[in-house]
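W.,

You were right to be curious about this one. When I first looked at the sequence I had no strong expectations either way, so I just let the prediction run and decided to look at it fresh. Below is the sequence, 168 residues in total, followed by the output.
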Amino acid sequence: MINFRDDVLPLKNRLYRLALRITAHTGESEDIVQETIIKAWNHRNEFETSLAVEAFCITACRNMALDCIAKKERQNIPLDNSIYDQVDNAATPFQTLSHEDRKEWVHKLFQHLPEKQRIIMQLRDIEGKPYKEIAKLLQISEEQVKVTLFRARQRIRNEFEKIDHYGL
């Protein structure tokens, strides 16, 4: 039997980070997490293990976040980048501007990755999940996880270098 406090509630922070990484909007991410947790609880009798709950929640959260983005794109509503507005007080104005510009470019490049690459990169680089766990959650081999992650990182690096070295 699935316990809300032990099996569902501990997932909320991971789900929030996943939704936030996809939507880049705090309010939308909170709503998505709340809906995901409610959905998981409503289906609690269908789960045999806590790993099944986690896989269900991650998939549901990802799908709802992607639906949210698709809805915004249809409405031409710009995504909110307020989470990236933190400033280092020791930096010069030029360094701060340069840093913010680079973060914005990396974020844009991340958002333009194919869905599978974006999700695997989120789970590994942001969430810190091991390859084995990612493979189980996404129902693919560990090798596929490693190759997909390598390609995602390489793609962001190559595209960023093109942007960063433009005109030099």
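Here's what jumped out at me. Confidence is low (pLDDT under 50) at residues 76-87. And, maybe more interesting for your project: The chain has two domains: 1-79, 82-168.

Coffee later to discuss?

I.
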